[in-house]
Q: What sequence folds into this?
């Protein structure tokens, strides 16, 4: 009998498991196999079906297609691999075969196919899942890269070896490398894996993220050398801080492009690597801030390497260069400024602020012009100033706005002088009251304008005055010229020392005025007037046709130079000048006024076509009465709302105090005037009011919490944020006595010796010093002796008094202990936590100080955020040292964060209420202030300020910290406050009493 | 007694220049006439000491001044036993001298003294007008001409250095402040021996710097400092240097503040 046809064989094979339709599908698919190879294909499939019928079904479905691409030999090897996989998982097997056609369509060379399957088998030995992943990924790798045979084998081998270490990584490896390798040399892959693995902490996620981001990140880098540099950088950082390294890598996608534009990416990475060798965190500060640095460097971005080197120099000198690289504070900007050879506002804003406040006699802020709120343009704004010179100095009455950077002169002393003169002008507008004319001085003028132009109003403000006339913009320009001249004259009179500087600046100011070409006739007149008022002359010759007008107007405006001139004078002359011009122009229809006569000439006027880029705002800046008035009005509303709010809370605030609080709040950026304008002042003042209203004591509260507010030092703004932090004080909870008992047992011997040593230091209430040369009572013994001496002819001693020296050891000490979460960190010997050691030190210390008889208090602090600084009282000055105190110490538990500044300020308040000669604050911390919005150089600066305040109040602060690495950082933070780094923390309990003794004797 | 004769040295032989600023002269006289103690409040260097000297001369009373400090004891004020040759004799302290012989006793910067020291003046400051000397078991009634004047700088230091209410309520208080511009120009030009123009500029500097209260310069710039600057200028020291030494460097250690102060002072002199 003849053998059954392959189709029948298939039918009987699948009869029991599949329904007829499915079977017929398979049969017809298989029948597409060339008849010559059909038997082999059938037999191979039958073998496969012994392992998995379902996989075999998939095989028969696709074999015809697969055979289009591969030879029969290859087919057998392929199925061999498929069998291996199907053995482990039928489902994987099915997928394996189903994907066959797609896979082989991507591999064109027979040799490649062979190696592909061979290597697949070797992986399957290791792990079938991995083999499946490989099987899926390898074809696209082969198709998209130029990997040669050896490279390909290396790729596979690397994956295989990786699997022995970590299966998940190996899977990820096969998935990602096909996308990576088109942009990444195979030779770097092992290093890439190493670095990736370096990033893993307990979890694999950082490594996976690293791998997943790799294709995109490396595709953006051009040379292999750069790619290796990036790996080196990530690696270097990862040694110290794996998480940061991962972050840095992922962010490099944003960081590097601006550097690539400049061709500086290598420099960035090389420098970062150099820094990472000192301090990984710092390196990533530099790296992550790179784009900001480039932005700040602007036109001198090519000097980036030199800028970084300056920072590295700081680092090597032992200062923390963190603020420098993060562009917090001034150091970084100062160097840029030096590099570009100009002066930056940030570096002198405090000096200018003090200068302006001294001159004007009112608090003002100094801010860059970019922070000036523009928006709805005031209708009466002089046409030129605002738009042409966005950098022009100006004021809103509360803040003086100045350009952020100036490099007008080669010499920085002149650049500074520009700032100084510009500030003097703005302060002058405030000092000489340019914005709020007195009604009694202007009433006649305004009434005459009202009649003349048949308008009402004009009394309430400068802007309302301007709008009395038909062309407010014109009179406003004239007023600006007049008022500028008036204030300049006043400044010159009152500040003779400014005259020279003003003279130098006026030359420069004139030089930078625009040419007359292209200006309207009226514009020409105004420009000439301004030039004359600035410098007494004009840059170009006054056109003949305009000479009379200009001279007439000069004479009118000249009245402002009189020492008795006020802003009312400027208004008067502006009005007169306005009438002169306006009437001369013959409105409305007649077009033959003097201005029009000049029109043609104006266009023909020759000018050298000054490059308009060189125009600069003059030091006089611009007057913006509308903004000043608005600001004033808003401030008033705000103040009223604030007072109202406080009144309902039972707090009576004077309007000056409210205005001052408001000014601060605006200066701190808590609210902007714009925001007030756009919403209800009552809502706006709520946060400020909340801060000002003292919290009512919680009667129901068992622990009696009390609330206090303290300022915080904002280093970048260079000022205190008023009542910024809320400190909540409570009595510490008591714990079991056992914890303390353990400490007492451990230190039994030491406690005994410390106590007796300190008792010796205890002064007796009153010390009678016998045989003193001077005193309140006679020392009878000495007197007797002296008489004897005298009788026997010797020179008698004059030491015959008893001095009642109240040798009082008048010492009060507060121990302020960091209880933030970071203190639960274990010491290197892993036995105790920092806090545990602090507790032990406190228990010993308490006994010592108690023995000596000094007044002392113990406070702990932690908290979260500026509104919840926890201040826990373990022992108050007036409490006796008892076991309850020990139990409170025993109960101390680490909690959240530490805002050192606020805690120090509160401790200082308490300490300063102690009437003792010597007052000491001992701060015990792990060295790093950290809280919400309170970290790094900001936190360090505030801590430093708080310690400085303590010193100013006659309190001696002393800081004890366990942060061994932080030496440089601490130096900055503690300034010239004494501090000590305890290197073997476990020795703290024994050392603290000795330190204390040294401090107080 | 030779102690009485030594009082001669406490009389002022020429009239100290004092430029009245307000009603202080009348107040002083009234206090003196009604035998009340006087408290002069005000910032340092605004003329309190000078005023007392001036009044002592006017009233033809000797003036005994005690600069108070932390270690001043009650005995330092009242007196003590001394050994003279082979006998011990009692020696009056400055306060006792003043009480006995009707001098004006001026306790300068009284808050600097310890509180247990200041209490000895209490019986002198109420109607009793007596000084008990414990060590001698003696109680001295104050001479009719005796007057006690204390000075105190309220802006100074903190809670600790505040004058106790029980002490301050015994006094008639006179508030001192910096003199008005014209008066201060007069004082500075006269005391420093410089022309009014220069003195005027110095006073302007003073006024501007006094605007800077909330920058750690609560004390402002005193008339005394302006006089010092004027004196240096009068001695031919270049103006900028004189201002720097007596104003900028004297007022602050902060480098930015110092720079601002220099800029301010320079604004007034070419
Ligand atoms: N009203 C004044 N009249 C005269 N001189 C004054 C006056 N105010 C201040 N001075 C000058 O200032 C200096 C300091 O004044 P002083 O009385 O020592 O100040 P205080 O005692 O208030 O600290 C005096 O030496 C004097 O030259
Ligand atoms: Mg901490």
A:
């Amino acid at each position: 009998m003849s053998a059954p046809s392959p189709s029948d064989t298939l039918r009987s094979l699948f009869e029991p498991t599949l329904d007829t339709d499915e079977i017929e599908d398979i049969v017809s698919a298989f029948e597409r196999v060339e008849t010559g190879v059909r038997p082999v294909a059938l037999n191979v499939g039958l073998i496969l079906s012994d392992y998995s019928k379902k996989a075999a079904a998939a095989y028969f479905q696709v074999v015809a297609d697969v055979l289009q691409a591969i030879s029969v030999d290859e087919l057998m090897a392929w199925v061999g691999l498929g069998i291996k996989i199907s053995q482990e998982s039928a489902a994987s097997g099915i997928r394996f075969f189903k994907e066959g056609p797609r896979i082989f369509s991507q591999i064109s060379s027979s040799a490649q196919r062979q190696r592909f399957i061979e290597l697949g088998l070797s992986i399957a030995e290791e792990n079938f899942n991995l083999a499946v992943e490989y099987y899926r990924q390898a074809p696209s790798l082969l198709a998209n890269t130029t990997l040669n045979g050896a490279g390909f084998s290396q790729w596979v081998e690397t994956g295989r070896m990786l699997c022995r270490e970590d299966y998940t990584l190996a899977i990820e490896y096969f998935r990602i490398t096909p996308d990576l390798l088109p942009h990444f040399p195979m030779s770097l892959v092992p290093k890439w894996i190493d670095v990736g693995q370096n990033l893993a902490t307990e979890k694999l996620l950082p490594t996976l993220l690293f791998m997943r981001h790799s294709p995109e990140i490396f595709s953006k880098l051009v040379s292999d050398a750069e790619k290796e540099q990036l790996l080196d950088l990530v690696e270097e950082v990862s040694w110290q801080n794996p998480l940061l390294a991962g972050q840095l890598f992922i962010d490099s996608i944003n960081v590097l492009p601006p550097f690539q534009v400049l061709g500086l990416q290598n420099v960035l990475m090389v420098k970062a690597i150099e820094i990472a060798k000192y301090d990984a965190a710092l390196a990533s500060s530099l790296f992550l801030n790179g784009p900001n640095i480039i932005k700040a460097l602007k036109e001198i971005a090519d000097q980036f390497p030199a800028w970084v080197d300056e920072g590295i120099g700081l680092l090597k000198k032992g200062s923390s260069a963190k603020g420098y690289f993060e562009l917090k504070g001034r150091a970084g900007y100062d160097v840029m400024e030096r590099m570009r050879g100009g002066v930056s506002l940030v570096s002198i804003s405090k000096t200018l602020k003090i200068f302006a406040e001294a001159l004007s006699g009112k608090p003002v802020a100094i801010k860059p012009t970019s922070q000036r709120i523009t928006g709805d343009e005031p209708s009466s704004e002089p046409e030129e100033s605002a738009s042409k010179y966005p950098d022009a100095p100006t004021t809103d009455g509360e803040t003086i706005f100045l350009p952020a950077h100036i490099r007008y002169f080669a010499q920085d002393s002149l650049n500074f002088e520009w700032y100084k003169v510009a500030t003097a002008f703005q302060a002058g507008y405030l000092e000489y009251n340019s914005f709020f004319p007195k009604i009694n001085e202007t009433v006649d003028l305004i009434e005459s304008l009202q009649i003349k132009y048949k308008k009402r109003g004009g009394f309430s403000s400068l802007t309302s005055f301007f709008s009395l006339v038909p062309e407010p913009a014109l009179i406003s320009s004239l007023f600006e010229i007049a008022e500028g001249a008036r204030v300049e004259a006043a400044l010159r009179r009152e500040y003779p020392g400014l005259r020279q500087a003003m003279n130098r600046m006026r030359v420069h100011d004139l030089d930078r005025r625009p040419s007359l070409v292209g200006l309207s006739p009226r514009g020409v007149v105004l420009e000439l007037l301004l030039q004359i008022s600035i410098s007494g002359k004009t840059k170009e010759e006054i056109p003949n046709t305009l000479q009379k007008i200009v001279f007439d107007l000069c004479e009118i405006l000249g009245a402002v130079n009189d020492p008795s001139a006020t802003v009312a004078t400027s208004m008067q002359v502006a009005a007169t000048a306005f009438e002169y011009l306006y009437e001369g122009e013959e409105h409305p229809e007649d077009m033959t006024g003097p201005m029009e006569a000049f029109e043609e000439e104006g266009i023909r006027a020759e000018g050298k076509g000054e490059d308009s880029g060189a125009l600069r705002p003059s030091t006089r800046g611009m007057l913006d009465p509308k903004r000043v008035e608005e600001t004033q009005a808003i401030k008033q509303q705000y103040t009223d709302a604030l007072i109202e709010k406080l009144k309902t809370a039972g707090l009576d605030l004077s309007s000056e105090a409210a205005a001052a609080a408001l000014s601060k709040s605006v200066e701190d950026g808590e609210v902007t005037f714009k925001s007030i304008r756009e919403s209800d002042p009552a809502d706006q003042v709520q946060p400020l009011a909340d801060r000002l209203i003292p919290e009512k004591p919680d009667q129901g509260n068992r622990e009696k919490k009390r609330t206090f507010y303290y300022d915080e030092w904002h280093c970048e703004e260079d000022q205190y944020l008023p009542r910024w932090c809320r400190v909540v004080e409570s009595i510490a909870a008591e714990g079991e006595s056992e914890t303390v008992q353990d400490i007492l047992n451990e230190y039994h011997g030491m406690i005994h010796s410390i106590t007796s040593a300190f008792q010796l230091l205890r002064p007796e209430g009153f010390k009678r010093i016998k045989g003193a040369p001077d005193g309140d009572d006679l020392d009878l013994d000495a007197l007797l002796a002296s008489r004897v001496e005298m009788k026997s002819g010797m020179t008698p001693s004059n030491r015959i008094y008893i001095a009642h020296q109240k040798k009082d050891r008048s010492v009060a000490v507060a121990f302020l202990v960091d209880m933030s979460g970071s203190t639960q960190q274990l010491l290197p010997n892993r036995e105790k936590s920092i806090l545990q050691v602090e507790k032990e030190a406190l228990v010993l210390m308490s006994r010592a100080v108690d023995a000596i008889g000094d007044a002392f208090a113990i406070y702990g602090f932690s908290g979260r955020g500026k509104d919840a600084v926890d201040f826990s009282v373990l022992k108050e000055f007036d409490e006796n040292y008892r076991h309850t105190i020990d139990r409170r110490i025993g109960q101390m538990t680490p909690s959240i964060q530490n805002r050192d500044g606020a805690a120090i300020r509160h401790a200082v308040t308490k300490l300063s209420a102690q009437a003792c000669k010597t007052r000491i604050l001992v701060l015990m911390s792990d060295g790093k202030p950290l809280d919400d919005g309170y970290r790094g150089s900001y936190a360090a600066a505030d801590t430093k300020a708080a310690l400085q305040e303590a010193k100013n109040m006659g309190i001696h602060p002393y800081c004890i910290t366990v942060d061994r690495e932080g030496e440089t950082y601490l130096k900055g933070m503690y300034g010239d406050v004494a501090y000590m780094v305890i290197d073997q923390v476990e020795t703290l309990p024994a050392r603290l009493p000795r330190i204390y003794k040294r401090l107080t004797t | 007694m030779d102690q009485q004769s030594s009082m001669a040295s406490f009389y002022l032989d020429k009239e100290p220049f004092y430029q009245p600023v307000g009603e202080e002269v009348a107040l002083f006289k009234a206090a003196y006439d009604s035998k009340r103690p006087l408290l002069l409040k005000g910032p340092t260097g605004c003329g309190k000491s000078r005023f007392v000297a001036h009044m002592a001369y006017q009233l033809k009373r000797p003036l005994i001044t005690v600069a108070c400090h932390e270690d001043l004891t009650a005995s330092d004020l009242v007196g003590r036993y001394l050994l003279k040759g082979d006998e011990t004799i009692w020696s009056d302290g400055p306060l006792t001298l003043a009480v006995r012989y009707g001098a004006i006793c001026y306790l300068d910067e009284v808050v600097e003294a310890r509180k247990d020291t200041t209490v000895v003046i209490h019986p002198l400051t109420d109607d009793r007008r007596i000084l008990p000397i414990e060590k001698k078991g003696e109680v001295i009634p104050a001479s009719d001409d005796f007057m006690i004047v204390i000075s105190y700088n309220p802006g100074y230091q903190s809670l600790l250095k505040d004058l106790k209410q029980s002490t301050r309520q015994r006094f008639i208080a006179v508030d001192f402040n910096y003199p008005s511009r014209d008066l201060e120009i007069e004082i500075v030009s006269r005391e420093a021996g410089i022309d009014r123009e220069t003195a005027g500029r110095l006073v302007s500097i003073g006024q501007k710097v006094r605007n800077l209260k909330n920058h750690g310069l609560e004390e402002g710039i005193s008339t005394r400092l302006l006089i010092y600057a004027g004196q240096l200028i009068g001695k031919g020291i270049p103006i900028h240097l004189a201002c720097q030494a007596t104003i900028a460097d004297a007022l602050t250690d902060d480098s930015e503040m110092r720079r601002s102060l220099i800029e301010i002072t320079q604004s007034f002199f070419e």
About this structure: DSSP finds 13 helices and nine strands in chain B. The domain at 3-175 of chain B is CATH 3.40.50.300 (Rossmann fold).
